[in-house]
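#struct-pred

JT: dropping the chains for the assembly here, can someone run the whole complex?
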Amino acid sequence: MSLEFNKIVEQVQKFGAMLDALDFDLGDRLSIAVERFYNPPPLEKIQERVELVQGPSVSGYRGAIPLEGENYEEISATFAPVPPPETAVIIAADGSQIYTSEQSPIHYYLINIGLFVYHHGVDRTPLQLTIPKLAYHKSEVHDPSGKIVGNRTVDARRTVREMQELGKLAWEMRGEINPLVALYDNHLLFGVSTDVVDHKKIMRAYRAAMVHLHDSGAILAGYVDNPTRSRVVVRMLYLLSLSDDEVLRADLSGGGDLEGLKDVHLFNAVLEPGERSAVMVQNSPRNLDYKRGEGGGPSYEIAFFYMKVSSGYRSSIVRVDIPMWVARNPNTVDQLHALLVEQCSMQGRNPYPYALTRADELAYVGGRDKSKLDEMIRLEARKKGIDPTNFSAKAWGKQLVRGDKRRFEMKK
Amino acid sequence: MVSTQQEIVGRILRASTKGFTCGTSSRQVDTRHDFGAFVKVPIANDGDCCVIGLIYAVEIKDDQLVNELVMADSVNPNVLLDQRENRMVPVEIDVLNVGYGYRDTNGAVINGFHSLPPRPPMSLSDVELCSIYEVFMFTQRYDFFRTVINASDVPSDDLLAAALRYAAQAYPENQRYEFMVHCGQHLARLLANDLKRLSHVLALIRPA
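RK: done, full complex below.
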């Protein structure tokens, strides 16, 4: 039976009443944050504070810290885009998957990677390719205890495949046209929880793929379109507002008097369309592991900057993750910034990199594709004399009632 | 008979005995898809019998990304190339059935009947452009005019005029005028009770 809307109308109205009562007003927190942003303490003071929070007496600080040494950019600095390089290649990768199904008589999963190559400054038809991989061997679809691998494992493997394919293509195209930007549709500070099958192996493979990208000379960037959960810069502003004594006592995992404020609120207020923030890094154990852990190194610590992308109709705040091999070269950061601004102006009102939109389109495996693949697999099984139906009354019942229904509507 | 890619107008998406719709990709669209062109396609389960029809609509489908790109101040040339060559924007071609015929030993569809075919073509059948010879043979008679004039949901006057101009090219140059005059005379008989319409159609087929 479909949802009885008459029974939910009242609940929706109560929900609306709750929205009225909610405090969406950031109050003076935004103005305090903006004030702190534009009036940071001197560099020496910031460095002292960073040393303090990275020392043994303070723990839990998960905020931003500025770049070290000659790469330091003042935290209140904003940068307008420079003209893009005359020519460049932008490779974008994205992935999609069909998860394993416990109900299915034949266990498999599919990972499909979409790659899109855009030639900036050269009139040339973009290159597109997809790399589907069907996993069906028991070593792939079952964990060591014989259970089917979960969705989180498939997701983690997909992430690694995305990075690996990006690395392979960047390697093949190295030296053709510079700069070569490898654009990845997510944050770069990838982590795998211990419940994921072969989590250590997956992390090693991910870092190896980053090394491959580094070796190919690519400008790797992780594009985070909607960083609404990110508060690293707000936490930093809170940290910088405290005295040394207060730092030792304060809960630095939150935003303190700026709690509730997010980085997107701050940068929406301080960035003009097209501008980027200073490059900073996030202080976290995971990032430290990228810098010092197995398979990592100083070049693989993840830095970031915020950008206000705009199509002229609409603008939004995005975060761009970059590895340190990119971050420590200001010219490279400028080129990436300029190319991203251009990419975001290419699809009408939607300020999003065109190359990523197309990579997503190439990777996407929809319901019809899944049905077709299921059919192909059933046919193959039948050829081998295996009955793939494995009748499940529950599954069949669901299919019957969830199928297309004849709908009666008013004639127009 | 295997068709070469150059001859194929598209492949059948849906069909009835009255007409059919075939699809192709936008990068394939060229003079084969002209309004009023004569096309042929084998009917279901009979490779020798082909429907003959006239293209009366060519529709280029959109999607949400194309809609967004249209809103842009200018479209980047590489995006244009990508959209046209990579994204396979679907094109649908609507065809009105005006007759059918049988292939001769050379594969040409002749011996045509100016009436609706016994069966529609099957999905995914190759729709081909009629050869000059086939158009010449089919237009030796004018009975298909009535089918076009009476067709509903079709711009019948413009379609008939476009089809006749198209067919005239199948005739030797010194016979084209005579062919058009004969067509006009036949139209005058068919539309004798609708002089405004007759006048309009004659104006459409009048040589420039």
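JT: nice. The mean pLDDT of chain B is 89. The helical segments of chain B are 64-71, 77-86, 132-138, 144-149, 156-168, 173-190, 195-205.
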